Amino acid sequence: MKVALFIPCYVNVLYPQVGEASYRLLRSLGIDVDYPLDQTCCGQPMANAGYEADAKPLAERMERLFADYDYVVGPSASCVSFVREGYPHLVEHHHNDGRPCLAERIYELCEFIHDVVKPEHIDASFHHKVSIHNSCHGVRHLGLSAPSELNIPYYSKLRALLEKVEGIEIFEPQRRDECCGFGGMFAIEESAVSGCMGHDKVHDHISTGAEYITGADSSCLMHMQGVIEKEGLAIRTKHIVEILTANE
Amino acid sequence: MSSHSKAARRFVANRERTAWHDKALYIVRSKRDRMAQSLPEWEQLREAASQIKQHTLSHLADYLEKFERNATANGIVVHWAADAAELNRTVEDIIRQHGGNKLVKSKSMLSEECELTPYLEERGIEAVETDLGERIMQLMHCPPSHIVLPAIHVKREEVGELFERELGTEVGNSDPTYLTHAARRHLRDKFLTADISMTGVNFAIAEEGAFAVCTNEGNADMGTSFTDLHIAIMGLEKVIPDYASLGVFTRLLARSATGQAVTTYTSIYRRPEEGKQIHVIIVDNGRTKSLHNEAHRNMLKCIRCGACMNTCPVYRRSGGYSYSYFIPGPLGINLGMLRSPEQYGGNASGCSLCYSCSNVCPAKVNLGEQIYAWRQEMDSLGVAAKSKKAMVKAMNLIMRHRGIFYAGVGTLPYVPRFVYNNRFNPWCEAREMPHFDTKSFNTLWKQGKIKR
Ligand code: SF4
Q1: pTM above 0.80?
Q2: Do A193 and B438 touch (CB under 8 A)?
Q3: What architecture (CATH level 2) is domain B39-154+195-288?
Q4: Least CB-CB distance to B18: which of A49, A141, A196?
């Protein structure tokens, strides 16, 4: 099984520790994982802003970079959901080599561990209270947890993994999967509403009594961390892979 | 800045009021959730509703003609109107033939769409809204800010002041029961003296030639019982096959709209009483065009429950008036684009693509996906924001060239923070910029610093 790590542009630049933890986590589960060099962007920001055509060359680049891997795994739910949903109609596929297109081989990291690796045990300890941030694309497109709108039994892949961490206390905000207001270009174009949504969401997390907000999307966490710093609040964000590899 | 973004900023500026508005609507969403959770077959019902609509829309002409045939046989007079102007004229003609100039209306978004009330008022016909929320808005001379809860943005103290002025209620009394009773007395008088009643149509049942009107206040029933002319107006997508399908929709409508098991009144009109008349006007006004728009024809499945507004995190924090189309929220963004991208394109930014609307919709209208699709069309329609386009093009140039990207990000840790973390950066309005003080993962990997 050849596995590649997909580190989206902004994670690569701003949160190298998330990439590092992703690598360490997969290795600790016995997976041989590679990082194809010089990855940039999957094209999601352009597409969500209405310029899918601009995402096309980026999509083609991604397909080439990851052509030789059985699984491609990334610590960012919304980027992965864009590749999975957007690429099939953006990139032409020639199935002559019999390899499925990237959309069919790409996984969000927690999803991959939960659905494919299925470990009994995760070697991590984190003696803190955390509130899970169920990000929109993770929930409603990738199915990382049961969307609150639907009448289906509750499940959460993030919670299932976190429960394997020693010492952790897990919470969820009252509005368990309400949008935090990041939304890519939305954060700039609609900055007033986006800021208000961020403020409300962070406070919903705070009222659980948690010390950390954790989730599978660094973009939402970046936005909320920005709100936290601006307002000087007593909570921090931490990507879920950092907790799944923690020893504290 | 888009029209929505500008107007939303004004709304959000009053944080206290925004929080109140958000909460009021979230309560409605929570009630809806409880109802949806209490029906084990909820998801099957949604699927059934979606399929019934899909089926009806793909045989629309047949069902409409069937409805017309059966309704006519029942003694209902059926009219057709190609657009708003024809609807308004037809209503006026029917009233002129019958006589009278006092009309009582129950809620109809179609009448808002066609600006029927001002049309009638200009011609000396008094058209009184009888739904409480609609009446409040009419007395305030403002349009509704929500399709089901038209006055959701108005506080009860403000209603108290309005009623003091308009209905002569006690000064400073904003007790909801007191105000409701005052409205009831005021409307009772309107009902008793009305010549004509008008209702919308929630569902037109082809097989039966009948139509259903759902209200919570019984105001439609009051109007149609007192008057001997009842005019019902409907968009042509309102037709459904039969009573069995009506059962699916009535189970979904009130649960989705307000979290009630069923609307207090679900009245089915089938034939006029002796000596009375019922007229139904079937209106196109762009719907056939929408039906031919493959990417967006799903919009015609909508049963106008308003759930997509209640769940929309942007609508709850920007208010109905922040949208330039008369219908707000995810539904309004989409319907506005179908009506005129030139006029209403400024609403498309008001969506963070959270997709909650698509999940909440009882008819499974894929509202979020359609907003995404509209954004893809905006540039070629000539209605995209120029600044956004420039930003996307620049970002794309950088991302396509790994050399530029990594050279650029390599310099970021050396740029003093105040250069980008300042009030000229829109990001910083509500948040701090992230910190660019580390080497990229790519660099660390190349330098062998990631433990292998
Ligand atoms: S689009 Fe769906 S959720 Fe929105 S008003 Fe129509 S039926 Fe209700």
Answers
A1: yes
A2: no
A3: 3-Layer(aba) Sandwich (3.40)
A4: A196
